[in-house]
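Figure 2 data, in text form.
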Amino acid sequence: MKKLLLGGACAASLLLALTPLAQAADMPVPEPVGLGWYVSIFGGASFAKDEDFSAVNSVYYGGYGFYDLFFDADLDLDTGFMVGAALGASFNEWLRGEVEVSGNFHDVSGEAYFYSDRYNSYTDLDLDGDENALFVLANLWIDLPIGGFFKPYIGGGVGAGRIDLELTGDYNGSNYDIIDDAGWGFAYQVGGGVAFEVAPNWAIDIGYRFKAINNVDLKLDDDVTLGGDDDEIEKDYRSHNILVGLRFGF
């Protein structure tokens, strides 16, 4: 009888010890899948923030002393488009990383003026041109495997960005070159979306990205030199982007 009671107690103790392990086994955990490689291509609409920049330089006029020359511009970036591609790897069902190359393209219009405090005079110009932004980013995305054929995700990335700006100005029917230059700066993006798995290894991606490039130096053209040998302006780029993409795993 004592042996039966002792055996029952041992069995009960073992059952109590295994119960937390069984409960823990029911908790969702990321399943390792190895390096599940994929490529994606995407494109969509890009809504860029309007921009402005200015430059000033002091010029010496012989016995008249120094006078300041000012240049100020306001740019309206039209709704443009963005395209890109990425190569990535899924570390588990929750996490993936990728390298992205993408570009944003916009038509630009706007107004600018020169001001000389020597003559107290303004010269107004109507601006026209193009602005492009190139991104090379390392991204990290968190997938939310909530079940079914769709998978929401959030994340972002950092890297380098290149702004390419070409501007001309019209003054009384004459065209002047304002800027035709490009430069690199720090770039980043944040965003999210939903991937719809339409077939094995195939998914349609609908998402949003906020993309930015900071502190790019661009040189003013000789037509608008302010008397210096290296007249530069500093500018940023910001845009909201809605994209549709196709992702293929292999």
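Caption note: The chain has one domain: 33-249.
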